[in-house]
Design a protein that fits this description.
By secondary structure, this protein is mainly α. It contains six helices and no strands.
Length: 114
């Protein structure tokens, strides 16, 4: 957590996996291999809003299920903008920044519970 920003809500994440820390570490590893952010950026670059919406929705769901709090908030905002048909130029960059800031926090959890 930096400046009050919660990247990974560990207590909530552990509750979601019934305190199975090894499972949580495994799920975080799978999340790191997920390509939805890459596909989302490509879809937005191509102007394919329906595909971008699917990618944003999937990334939002993964973030929620893994208790990646700040990433969830930012992807939710991006998905809302995509649905409205008008994406703010900086929102994708915000999502990418939060994503990159979340990964080291995920790595800490993996290292702790693996």
């Amino acid at each position: 957590m930096a400046d009050g920003v919660v990247y990974v809500n560990i207590e909530e994440a552990l509750k979601r996996v019934m305190n199975n820390s090894k499972l949580l570490a495994k799920l975080f590893k799978k999340f790191k291999d997920d390509k939805n952010l890459i596909d989302l950026e490509a879809a937005l670059t191509e102007g394919d809003l329906p595909k971008a919406q699917v990618n944003a929705h999937t990334l939002k769901g993964l973030s929620a299920n893994l208790s990646l709090t700040e990433l969830y908030k930012q992807v939710l905002e991006l998905e809302t903008q995509i649905k409205a048909g008008s994406v703010a130029p900086d929102q994708l960059e915000t999502v990418k920044t939060v994503y990159s800031e979340t990964l080291p926090e995920i790595d800490k959890v993996i290292a702790q519970y693996e």
